[in-house]
Amino acid sequence: MQSFSCSNVLHFLLIFIIIQTTTFAAEFREAPKFYNSQTCPKIMSTTDTSFICSNNDNAVHVAMTLDAAYLRGSMAAILSVLQHSSCPENIIFHFVASLSVDIDGLNLVIAKSFPYLRFQIYPFDISSVSRLISTSIRAALDCPLNYARNYLADIIPTCVSKVVYLDSDLVLVDDVVKLFTTPLGSEVVLAAPEYCNANFTTYFTPTFWSNPSLSLTFANRKLCYFNTGVMVIDLGRWRAGDYTTKIVEWMELQKRMRIYELGSLPPFLLVFAGNIAPVDHRWNQHGLGGDNFRGLCRNLHPGPVSLLHWSGKGKPWVRLDANRPCPLDALWAPYDLLQTPYFLDS
């Protein structure tokens, strides 16, 4: 095993600081402007952030995180949402970014590519969650910004009662309003596609399952896996039930006794599995990033497709740049806004 001297540690710490504080220097093209259809309800146009609370009856709220490593994916996801929406002017984006990045620079990048976009960027103090993160089977899963979804109800203004949360490694090929209007019933907090054939036991350690006081958490619940990269969340019910605290309590327990291995997903399963509203699988064709260990390409699941999700180790922009794409990466490429020296405006 390789040993690390103090100088090695300082070197890697310096690299980490540079990455975290870097400006978003990539050049992205301006996206086309998309207009509402004639049947869309009108929402107010204001010059300040009051638009967030002025349009709750007719607006569609979408939340995402933004960081340097995934910004190219985020830009593609935004474009796909707008392009396939019947009422793109009614979409309000809520972006969460690390407090350590250049928020003003990030604002300029988004506004330059999407001049007409209604959006707000919220700085997230990652130190609040960093102390709670345990190492997982993939280092990428330990990024503190992955855990920002736990705090959306605290970050987004309380006037916003419902939001669609989307990861940055996906594109929509259907109208997001269909997802946003998913029925949640009278009590359910969130909705997501469920996968009840998955082996649920693998998400938790033998320590968890051998402890009755822990394993009984799932008593009388139908255990179905769901991917947290695509969720419809009732923020009002989340706040009323203080679900952020419930998730944090499981993360604190994980620090004391290892009960799971896989990043930010298990706490969501512990709190919500078996108690969510169903969403058709077409809204999360996930796993397109391939095998976590060998980088294998994946095929689509059977059935219709409304959302393509490159969850997993491989990202389409990385594979395309390396000239080693998987076949389905060609479906992501048309949404790529990165300005390259070889791009010719049509």
From TrEMBL:
What pathway or pathways are given for this protein in its record? Glycan metabolism; pectin biosynthesis
The cross-references to InterPro entries, in alphabetical order and at most eight, read: Glyco_trans_8, Glycosyltrans_8_dom-fam, Nucleotide-diphossugar_trans
Q: Does the keyword Glycoprotein apply?
A: yes
Top-rank EC class of the record's enzyme = transferase
Q: Where mainly found? A: membrane
Question: What superkingdom heads the lineage?
Answer: Eukaryota
**One term of GO molecular function:** glycosyltransferase activity
Q: What GO CC annotations are associated with the protein? A: Golgi apparatus
Question: What is this enzyme's EC?
Answer: 2.4.1.-
* Keyword Transferase part of the UniProt annotation: yes
Question: Where is the protein situated, by its record's location annotation?
Answer: Endomembrane system
Pfam families according to UniProt: Glyco_transf_8
Membrane-topology annotation of the record: Single-pass type II membrane protein
Q: Where is the secretion signal located?
A: 1-25
Per the record, the similarity remark reads: Belongs to the glycosyltransferase 8 family.
The name this protein goes by in its record: Hexosyltransferase
Q: Which organism is it from?
A: Lithospermum erythrorhizon
